[in-house]
């Protein structure tokens, strides 16, 4: 027994007035005894305290990380706006309203709220009323007997029909002496809060998936534009070689090499179509639309790489909805221990009934037809073969499982942030090196092309340089896409714009 609970708000107490058929002198002591019981009632089982988790002082991979300053500028809510892409923001709005995974999570949350309302109803008395009319009858019977003089006598009874009019009301109230109902409500409330966090996590997951797919699609559009521009250059090279061959300046092998290069690049451009189509279809599903009715027109790519403040590891406990959900599940499991322990103690139920019962309608609602009953019922467990002990151990083991799951969720979240921090920092260094390689490839291509057009080298030398330049251009775009994806992953790993304060106790209104 860990704390004293007052009587639930709104709990009715019999008024010390003279009820019909019940002396007032008997009501006052009963009311006083009832108040004494309620005020001394307690909830068995352990009170919930969130277990400690070692999160570390700071992220290891933040060394050398460029964090935004000041931290007051950290965006909350629509985190995707840091990328500055209007089309992405428009798609995000559709995810919020039409994504079916989010709709499922929202329905589960409403179910959890309804469970809390149903649980709280058990704290109050239940009152019922019933009315009935029955008509019963028996058939006539006959028998044959012989009297003392030997004469056969015919006898029997006539049939009868009876009416029964009934009107009654009943009330019952289980006093929550040991907190079984309150612990149940506590568990259901924590589960509802976990469901709210799960809903927030569904939002964040869908938003992050949309952002990743969208940026990959835009990078493919950029790669397609690069290949189309390269194809035009290769077409020009093929015509130039054909003209040079016509005047006997170049060999036929150079024409074949130019055509091979051109067709290979065209094949790469074609290959991008189905990859882009798959991403477009995935985005359609995320926004709740059939793929056949959805399309994203290619446009100029304007999204920028944001600066993301990592914060402190301990902040993940409040910023990640999946961690909040695991913590609330742990609270719910802890309350179930109290529910299991309350089964060791007796239950006290107050019940009352009153009504009218008569065989004639005219006598139905009259004093002689009235009946009533009032009294408590005490039920105490005596022997169950170890059932309650096993149920308590089961609840304690379930709580230990939730604690381990919570700590594992925290550790996994910490690892995710460390991974994405390391990935982004490494990619930033890689892009600096890649840019130098790209600049060198462009300069080499320019010089080699000038030498070829001046007749100083053959075309085979140009092909090698052009292939290298194209490869570096595509690598730079792929790296940009990877950095954008990693930025989205880091924002999601940090909880997006969500905070645990948004998981408020569910309302019953």
Description:
By secondary structure, the chain is of the alpha+beta class. It contains 9 helices and 6 strands. The chain has 3 domains: 1-42, no CATH class; 47-122 and 177-345 and 387-502, Outer membrane efflux proteins (OEP) (Up-down Bundle); 125-139 and 159-175 and 346-379, Outer membrane efflux proteins (OEP), CATH 2.20.200.10. The two termini are 31 Å apart. Residues 133-155 are annotated as: Disordered. GO terms for molecular function: efflux transmembrane transporter activity.
What's the SSE blueprint?
Layout: H1 24-39, H2 86-98, H3 100-121, E1 126-138, E2 141-146, E3 152-157, E4 160-175, H4 180-246, H5 252-286, H6 316-319, H7 321-342, E5 347-358, E6 370-379, H8 387-453, H9 459-493
Antiparallel strand pairs: 1-4, 2-3, 4-5, 5-6
Helix pairs in contact: 2-4, 3-4, 4-5, 4-7, 4-9, 5-9, 7-8, 8-9
């Amino acid at each position: 027994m860990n704390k004293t609970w007052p009587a639930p708000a709104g709990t009715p107490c019999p008024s010390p007035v003279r009820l019909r058929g019940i002396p007032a002198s008997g009501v006052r002591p009963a009311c006083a005894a009832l108040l004494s019981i309620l005020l001394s009632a307690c909830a068995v089982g352990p009170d919930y305290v969130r277990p400690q988790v070692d999160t570390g002082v700071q992220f290891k991979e933040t060394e050398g990380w460029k964090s935004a300053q000041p931290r007051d500028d950290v965006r909350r809510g629509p985190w995707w706006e840091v990328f500055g892409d209007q089309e992405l923001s428009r798609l995000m709005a559709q995810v919020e309203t039409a994504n079916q995974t989010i709709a499922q999570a929202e329905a589960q949350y409403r179910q959890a709220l309804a469970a809390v309302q149903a649980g709280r109803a058990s704290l109050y008395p239940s009152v019922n009323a019933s009315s009935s009319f029955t008509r019963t009858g028996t058939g006539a019977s006959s028998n044959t007997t012989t009297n003392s003089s030997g004469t056969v006598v015919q006898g029997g009874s006539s049939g009868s029909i009876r009416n029964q009019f009934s009107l009654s009301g009943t009330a019952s109230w289980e006093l929550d002496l040991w907190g079984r109902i309150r612990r149940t409500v506590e568990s259901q409330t924590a589960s509802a809060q976990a469901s709210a966090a799960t809903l927030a996590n569904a939002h964040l997951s869908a938003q992050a998936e949309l952002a990743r797919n969208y940026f990959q699609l835009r990078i493919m559009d950029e790669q397609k534009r690069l290949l189309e521009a390269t194809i035009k250059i290769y077409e020009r090279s093929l015509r130039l070689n054909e003209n040079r061959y016509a005047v006997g300046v170049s060999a036929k092998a150079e024409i074949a090499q130019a055509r091979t290069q051109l067709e290979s690049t065209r094949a790469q451009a074609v290959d991008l179509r189905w990859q882009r189509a798959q991403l477009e279809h995935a985005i359609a599903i995320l926004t709740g639309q059939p793929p056949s009715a959805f399309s994203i027109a290619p446009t100029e790519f304007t999204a920028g790489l944001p600066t993301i403040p990592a914060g402190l590891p301990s902040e993940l406990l409040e910023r990640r909805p999946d961690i909040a959900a695991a913590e609330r599940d742990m609270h719910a499991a802890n309350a179930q221990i109290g529910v299991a322990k309350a089964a060791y103690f007796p239950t006290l139920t107050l019940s009352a009934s009153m009504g009218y019962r008569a065989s004639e309608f005219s006598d139905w609602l009259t004093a002689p037809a009235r009946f009533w009953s009032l009294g408590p019922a005490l039920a105490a467990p005596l022997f169950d073969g170890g059932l309650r002990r096993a149920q308590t151990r089961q609840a304690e083991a379930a709580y230990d499982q939730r604690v381990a799951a919570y700590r594992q969720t925290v550790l996994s979240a910490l690892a995710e942030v460390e991974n994405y921090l390391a990935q982004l920092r490494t990619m930033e260094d890689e892009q600096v090196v890649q840019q130098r390689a790209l600049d060198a490839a462009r300069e080499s291509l320019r010089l080699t092309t000038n030498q070829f057009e001046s007749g100083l080298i053959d075309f085979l030398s140009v092909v090698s340089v052009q292939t290298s330049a194209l490869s570096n251009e595509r690598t730079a775009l792929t790296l940009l896409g990877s950095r954008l994806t990693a930025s989205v992953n880091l924002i999601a790993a940090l909880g997006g714009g969500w905070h645990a304060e948004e998981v408020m106790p569910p309302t019953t209104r």
